[in-house]
Amino acid sequence: MPPGFHLLIAAQFASALADNALLIVAIALLQRQGQPGWWAPLLKFGFTTAYVVLAPFVGPLADSCRKARLMMAMNALKVGGVALLLAGVNPLLAFGVIGIGAAAYAPAKYGLVTEMVPPRLLVAANGWIEISTVCAVLLGAVLGGLLVSPLVGGWLVAAWPGRPALQAAMVLLLAGYALAALLNLGIPDSGARYRRAHRAPRALVRSFVRAQRRLWADPEGALSMAVTTLFWGAAAVLQFAVLRWAGERLGLALDRAAYLQAMVAVGIVLGAGWAGRHVPLTRATKVLPLGILMGVCVPCAAWLTDWRAALPALLLVGILGGALVVPLNALLQHRGHQLLTAGRSIAVQNCNENLSMFVMLGVYAALIALGVDIRVVMALLGAVVAGCVAWLRRRALQRLPGANLVG
User: What distance in Å separates the CA atoms of residue 52 and residue 332, rounded to the nearest whole number?
Assistant: First the structure.
């Protein structure tokens, strides 16, 4: 890998670790405030809103300046969101501010990868990015679970007398964002430069719409975009569904349910690592059948009643998901970089993926508010994933007859 790539990985890990630990702490804060259960997915809902609304602007922004410096500035904005939480601002609003930082951070991060890494190493590079991201999700869930546990909460109160345990936990998480900002300083400039975009908002929106059409009109771009969009929407729902399912069906408290949620992340790391080593970019579409199998496994896991049986089931779901998303994500970035610019292609990708999260989390919150059994919700989620991937694979066989789509 080129110089500076591992600093990028480390900075991504530190920032994502703080994001995911903060999510668990914020859920605990909502529970402490006595808010209804359907408020929890709204945290992510507010977080992803920025990705969708700001998509026409963050791509040109990432292309117009040194991406590492932009990433550092966005980590500083995330610190501002945590400060709002500490000041007692509504957690949904605070997570919206953190989402703005994340929305501008993503095209800079992935755009830098496509600029630094040659196409032959792009799947491996994406494997590293996804492994670092999912390890951060995994350890962030564990760290968040520890921070909201009674034992660690007692230590935090003793360390900071007069400060509630959850506030003390948020102060600790500020160190993660500070570390990420420092690591961003060491990432070298890729040297890539792009033609300056129009600055008028209307012109930026029109340019973004044209970029959307161009990427969706490309057969490989459309296939990879559709699958990754579906995957990340389903993953966002599963993140909350597993927590609720573990509490309702397995009788686990939030801190222990977070560890169970982490098993999915462990599986994604393993699947991403396998894909990064064994699936070249030219054969990225061969992993589509794994998406169908993943969709089948989710409802099977939902009817388990013992946490010991749930661990390997959730691990398998994660392995299949990691092996599915890494090659297709690399293919999407490769086609996006060829058809557009690095920042704009990632902004288009993020808009679609987060719009999927936005819609699917909204449906999930509505189903929970209506009192639908969490097992039924998970079964519906699995059926949607399996059915959509099967349809996309069949369509791809017709549009891409030369592609290797046989798993």
Answer: 18
d(CA 17, CA 289): 31
Higher pLDDT, 62 or 381: 381
Per the model's pLDDT, the better-predicted residue between 121 and 78 turns out to be: 78
* Single-letter residue type at 79: V
What distance in Å separates the CA atoms of residue 138 and residue 258, rounded to the nearest whole number? 9
CA neighbor of 75 nearest in space, from 105, 108, 54: 105
Encoding tokens for residue 260?
């169970």
DSSP secondary structure of 53-103: HTHHHHHHHHHTS-HHHHHHHHHHHHHHHHHHHHTT--HHHHHHHHHHHHH
Residue 268 CA to residue 133 CA, distance in Å, equals 10
From the CB of residue 213, how many other CB atoms can be counted at a distance below 10 Å? 11
Q: Containing H/E element for 299?
A: helix 288-302
Are the C-beta atoms of residues 122 and 330 closer than 8 Å to each other?
Answer: yes
Q: Which contiguous run of DSSP H or E holds residue 184? A: helix 165-185
User: Residue 407: its pLDDT value, please?
Assistant: 37
Name the DSSP letter for residue 117.
Answer: S
Q: What's the CA gap between 200 and 79, in Å, rounded?
A: 29
Phi-psi region of 88 (alpha: psi -120 to 50; beta: other; left: phi over 0): left
Stronger pLDDT, 296 or 125, i.e. the higher one: 296
Give 66-103 pLDDT, tens digit per residue: 888 888 899 889 999 999 988 888 888 898 899 899 88
- Tell me which H or E stretch contains 208: helix 201-217
In angstroms, the Cα distances linking 170 to 45, 165, 240 are 20, 9, 20
Q: Quick check: 347 and 331 in contact, CB under 8 A?
A: no
Q: What is the pLDDT of residue 342?
A: 62
Let me know if 394 is exposed, middle or buried by CB neighbors in 10 A (0-12, 13-18, 19+): exposed
Nearest partner of 108 among 298, 347, 306, 294, judged by Cα = 347
Tokens matching residue 386: 């399996």
The more confidently predicted of residues 119 and 244 is 244
In this prediction, residues 340-350 reach a mean pLDDT of: 75
Backbone angles phi, psi at 195, to 5 degrees: -60, 135
Burial string for 370-390 (b: 16+ CB within 10 Å, else e) reads eeeebbebbbbbbebbbebbe
